[in-house]
Every structure is written in C-alpha cells, then in structure tokens.
Fold this sequence. Notes:
By secondary structure, this protein is an alpha/beta fold. It has one domain (2-321): NAD(P)-binding Rossmann-like Domain (Rossmann fold, 3-Layer(aba) Sandwich), CATH 3.40.50. 41% of the residues lie in helices and 21% in strands. The protein contains twelve helices and 14 strands. The chain has a seven-stranded parallel sheet with strand order 3-2-1-4-5-7-11, with helices on both faces. Strands 8-10-12 form a three-stranded mixed sheet. 48% of the residues are buried. The structure holds nicotinamide-adenine-dinucleotide. Nicotinamide-adenine-dinucleotide is lined by residues 7, 9-13, 30-35, 49-51, 67-69, 71, 86, 90, 109, 111, 161, 163-164, 175, 309. The site of nicotinamide-adenine-dinucleotide has 28 residues, from strand 2, helix 4, strand 5 and strand 8.
Amino acid sequence: MKILVAGGAGYIGSVLAPLLHEHGCQVDVIDLMWFGNHLPRGISATKRDLFSLDATDLAGYDQVIFLAGLSNDPMAEYDPVMNFVQNGALPPYLAFCAQKAGVKRFIYASSCSIYGYTENRLYDEDAPVFCSYPYGISKTVGERGVLQQEQEGFSTIALRQGTVNGHSPRMRFDLIVNTMFKSAMTDGRIVVNNPAIWRPIIDVRDTAKAFVCAVRAEPELSGVYNIAYDNFTVGQVAEEVKKAVEKHTGKAIDIETRNTPDFRNYKVDCAKANTQLHFRPDCAIADIVDSLFAHYADYGDLTKEDYYNIEVFKKIKKQQTENALGAH
Length: 328
Ligand SMILES: NC(=O)c1ccc[n+]([C@@H]2O[C@H](COP(=O)([O-])OP(=O)(O)OC[C@H]3O[C@@H](n4cnc5c(N)ncnc54)[C@H](O)[C@@H]3O)[C@@H](O)[C@H]2O)c1
C-alpha cells in the first residue's frame, strides 16, 4: 500500500512513518521541515508546502494521512490567520485533491481539544463541540471539511487525539507529561496550573498504532474516533509523573499547585475506536515516563528552543518577515 503522510516529519509523523514502513507500506512524507527531518533513511521525505500540491501529485497513493498545520494553542494564538488557513482550509483542500486523484482514504489528525470547556462527563463522538479558541475552532473546521467529502470509494476518518506524549525522534517538551518530566528533571518540581481540569492522555506509540488501525479498517468505514489511553485530571498526571520520576532518580519531586483558570476541560469516551477500529492502547503514564528516561541521555538541554513549537515558530515567522522586507 502506498501512503502519503502530509506533515509527517513532525512529532507524531516521526513515529508513525517508520511504523507504517514496518507494516509493509510504501511511505512518502511531504513536509515543510519546520523542525528538521528526523525520519529514518528508508522513508522518502520531500521539503514542500502542501498548498503547492494538486490532484496530479496525489495520483497513485492509496491513502493520505494529514498531520500538518499548527499543532498547539500558542502557535494558533501567535498567528491566528495562518492558523485558520493551515488548520481550517488545508485539510479539506488536500482531501479534495485526494478524492479527485482516486485516493481511497483520507485520515485526518483531529484533536479532542475541539470539545472545549465541558461539564465533567464523558464526551463521545456524538457530543456537541463548543470551543471558542483559535486552535480548537480551526481543528473543528478542518475536521468537518474533510469528513463531508466522504463518498462511495472515498473514505474519510478523523482521529480526535488526546494530548500525545512520550518519546519521538522529533522531540517536543511542550506536551503535558513531557513538560512535567522536564520540570521534574531540571527543577525538582512540577508546577500544576489547575489540578482539577481533565485531559485525555495518549502515548505517541499508541497514537501511531491508532493511525495504523485506521489505515487497515474496512474500506467502507468513515467517521470520527476519540483516541486516548485514559482521562486524567492535571493533578493526577502530576502525581503519576512525580511517582515515576522518583522511582527512576531516587530523588523527591515537589508539586507546586496554582489555581489558574483554563479554557480547556474535557474527558472523552474511546469505546467507538475500540469496537470499530479495534484500537487498544498499551501505554500508561508510567510507560510514557519510562520512554522519556530511556532517551534522556540523548536530549541534552531539555529547555532548548528546538523542543518548543512556539519558539521555533516565532523564529520562522521572524525570518519570513526579514526575508520579505529584504525583498523590497
Ligand atoms: N501532539 C499532540 O498532542 C496532538 C494532539 C491532537 C492533535 N494533534 C494534531 O496532530 C497533528 C500532528 O501533530 P504533531 O505534534 O506531530 O505536530 P508537529 O508540529 O510536530 O508537526 C507538524 C508538521 O507539519 C509540518 N507542516 C505544517 N504546515 C505545513 C505545510 N503547509 N506543508 C507541509 N508541511 C507542513 C511542519 O513542518 C511539521 O513538521 C497536527 O495536525 C496536530 O494539530 C496533535
């Protein structure tokens, strides 16, 4: 099977593309390489803006997986226009090209953050989504624009991922468990901004498995799927990370609790992915921390800019502005 992973050189793609390759797929990645290229040699990776593709570029692919765009709230708030264009318009445009090119399935990396600030009950895929912040709105628009293009012979699947954590060759320390690990290791303490709010959590290895399940699902299957290992309050995540880091280091870790309001609070029901995609996640928070420890020696300075999307993004935007000014 020939698969294009759009935005596949990022955090999730750097784990997913090799896994698809292991499963016997021919994988091509197209990516702007904002964070470099950490993919293994066997994966063909092209530096290119996805907006420059048309249907002729997608001819011959069986499936397209979309992982591109701006991938967190700080980036979306830093450049809201680019956020709505990259996250809202690009996924439907690429799905449109894919359908025209005869691709059989388009899989979209959606986010549970589109549920917004919910009541404390489990939200399944039929629950309303009411978010009021740029990232969540743009992911909702992107998801709807992709899903509505489903037709006979063209399946569309959206995986609403919980917060993804753990080790990737393209590493991020701006994701909840990874951030807490970084703080515990560098400062000996974890800061909890709001211990009561809920987040679904998933390891990046399980996330990659979920995409493989979607690739392998029966041809006529389309729809939305919540993807997480489990739901935790932020306070619970901190306790789990503290326990795991103390086990590894033998040093006591403090938890500093604040009561900062948050605009996101959601816990999700993942039964549909279990029954329809046969997706069974394996990794608890302790496993995520174990994976971070296994690569700890490779990370160097955990606070360096490369590990934080917003810092890299600001540098790229500054460079683009300077280039534009230089051209006049
Ligand atoms: N990481 C999470 O916790 C999480 C949770 C839910 C949903 N998601 C979604 O999953 C997807 C992947 O997340 P990630 O953590 O791997 O993000 P990431 O920021 O590490 O990777 C995104 C990649 O897309 C590329 N890209 C962006 N715009 C592009 C364009 N126009 N053309 C070509 N390449 C482009 C970037 O260069 C980057 O390599 C994103 O769509 C994100 O919104 C992520």
